[in-house]
Amino acid sequence: MRKLVVTENSTVDGVIDMAGGWFDPLDNEVDRSDITAALTEQREAADALLVGRNTFVAFREFWPKQTDDTTGVSDYLNAVDKYVVSSTLTEPGWQNSTVLRGPLVDEVAALKAAPGGDIVATGSIQLVHALIAANLVDEYRLFVFPVAVGHGAHLFDSARVDLELLETRPFTSGVVLLRYAPKR
């Protein structure tokens, strides 16, 4: 059975929305070669991306236009099977994309039951909150950035989730990867 992995970038105070302008995916001023290697490992283990409509539209408008992406994210996102949860999106307009309209639990259960690698959910705060509430997440990968912004959406905003630490990996930039599994 496939794993559903939530991967989020977070501030040290737990904010995962990017509204404060604290995260730049193409910031070339910081040496992120070790983070890039970790992300490559994760991409190689995953063959599906699960996102909500807002994140999907933002990704669709941004990543296919990146021609100088040395991290491989653009190539990966263009090639990977993308599943977007939406009741309003009619035509995804990006190759390898499927709109999921059915009940979330049923759609995700079907994806997890199909053969393949990890299914990664990222961004998509409303969707991720729904996945957490439905107890569908198998692993959390949090890239914690050394900045505090004091306000914004949090990953575990309204749900208590007991976690088991799987890995802690610091990077030269001060970012730390924290991997957790829910205690079952």
UniProtKB/TrEMBL annotation:
Single GO molecular function: 5-amino-6-(5-phosphoribosylamino)uracil reductase activity
InterPro entries noted in UniProt: DHFR-like_dom_sf (IPR024072), RibDG_C (IPR002734), Riboflavin_Biosynth_HTPR (IPR050765)
Residue ranges crossing the lipid bilayer per the database entry: none
GO terms for biological process, alphabetical: riboflavin biosynthetic process
Domain (Bacterial bifunctional deaminase-reductase C-terminal): residue spans on this chain: 3-177
Cross-referenced SUPFAM superfamilies: Dihydrofolate reductase-like (SSF53597)
Name the UniProt record assigns to this protein: Dihydrofolate reductase
